[in-house]
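Box 3.1 A note on notation
Throughout this textbook, protein chains are presented in two layers. The first layer is the amino acid sequence; the second is a token string describing backbone geometry. Keep the layers aligned when reading.
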Amino acid sequence: MYYPIEAVRKFAARYDAIKAQGNQEELNEFKEQMLARRKAIVDSVAGLQEWEKGSSVEDTNRRIVSEKFEALGYLPVDFRDSSVMNSTFVNTRTLLTEARWATVRPHIEALVNQAKHQRLARYRSNTIWQRQQLARARIQSYLDQRPWLEAVFRPTVLEVLNKFSVFKDIIEQPNEAVVLAESFDPAMEALPSLLKEYADPTKRLLVQRMVEGGAQNVSDPPAEEDLNKVFYATTVFFSKTSKLDIPICVDSEFRKRMRWLFNVGLEDVDGTCRHLAFNSKASDAVGALLRCARLEYTTTAEDLDDLDLRFYCLGCEGRERKLARSWRDCAQHATEAKHNTDNWQLLANKTASRVRVAENSNLKDRRPRFYCNRCGLGGQFRDHHSLGDLAEHLKTRRESCGRIETRDVQGIKDGMILDSSSTTEA
């Protein structure tokens, strides 16, 4: 700290003014003030010189530490971290000699490794995510090329990444490792066998349920060729815990139906299937449907759903005989019917199309729908009618249908057949 020349001139003028007054006491007090200010300046300069000297030592220590750890193979981002450079081992006015380095090195090296681990932890999650994205793209591309049958029991892409060690080992390599899409080639080569190992236990459990239910087309213990028979439409299960009594077949929606519709629990979805029971009567009925439709015995449930056929049960009597049913309805009917359900009639495509239209219309109207059985149409309907509409129809078509009054409800019923839309519900 130094005084500018103007300040010195002011002090001199002040000194001359006090001296001229002849006041010795005031003059001595002024001298003491000036000496105190001078001492403060001298002390400040000495402190600055000492700080400059210490700063030079600290900079030298930092340079020495950087050279040492760079030679040891550490990254600058780690050994130049503030926790290292500002530590008491480096940020000190004691010069870091070779003798002192041998003493403090373990402590400084521990700080460098700590900084390294903190850095890796900050970037680890992002590194893992980037590698998972590379693996996801390759796995999904492979799965998209596989038939739907393999999709029923296979894990999700995320499960593949988390459960299969061949992928985890690559993803969890150190951050410094270079992982590219090609790095997953060995894992992709092993993926088909891994997926088979994942799916086969569930298939074997289902085949075992088939054996317990009396299936004749599988062996006990299950053979390799029996595993894909779980996809056949003739493989019909029912839930022991559900009151819906709706058949459960292995199709692309199998896991979703098991979980949300049939109340069988997550443990069954994951592979135990202990609440599923194979129904041989329903299975035989579906086999009869396949023969009626001239389809192969290997037809899958998904194939039948795509065809969306409609059938009459020729074992029923009365109006039930003309109740058009889907193949799943036929399987359910077989479990309830008191008669044999091995005799079916396949509806013509045009007729089945009209049934499907009726099923999808007026879903909330559960009143019966009828068609005329006295017309010259041979019993084949064109439009669906309510009871009142049929009464009007019979009055206007009395030549061919007979004289029937509107109030003659029983006569109307005798001249009509209940149509499948009477079973349609929301």
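The chain has 18 helices and six strands. The longest strand covers residues 237-239.
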